[in-house]
């Protein structure tokens, strides 16, 4: 009966405050982690999360 999931931060591996439903589709979503205070670009489809490498966001986040 698992219809939603917390998104795990790809930087520190802990739970963020962002949830996914099984019908949630994300494309290049800027995931903010309150634990390590960094932003990761992710895509998600059917509870599968993929991390996007984006060099621009690294230099913009200051
Ligand atoms: Zn984190």
What do you see in this structure?
- The chain has 62 residues and is mainly beta.
- The protein has one domain.
- Helices cover 10% and strands 52% of the residues.
- It has one helix at residues 55-60, and strands at residues 4-8, 15-21, 25-32, 39-45, 48-52.
- It is globular and about 35 Å long.
- Zinc ion binds next to loops.
Give a brief description:
This protein has 62 residues and is mainly beta. 10% of the residues lie in helices and 52% in strands.
Proportion of strand residues: over 45%
Our measurement of the CA-to-CA distance between the termini, rounded to an integer number of angstroms, reads 40 Å
Shape: globular
Helix content: under 10%
Bound molecules: zinc ion
List the strand order in the largest sheet: 3-4-5
Number of helices: 1
Give start-end ranges of low-pLDDT stretches: none
Q: Got a strand count? A: 5
Give the helices and strands as they follow along the chain: EEEEEH
What is the number of domains? 1
Secondary structure class reads mainly beta
Subunit organisation of the chains = single chain
- Major sheet size, sense and barrel closure: 3 strands, antiparallel
How large, in whole angstroms, is the Cα Rg?
12 Å
Rounded mean pLDDT is 89
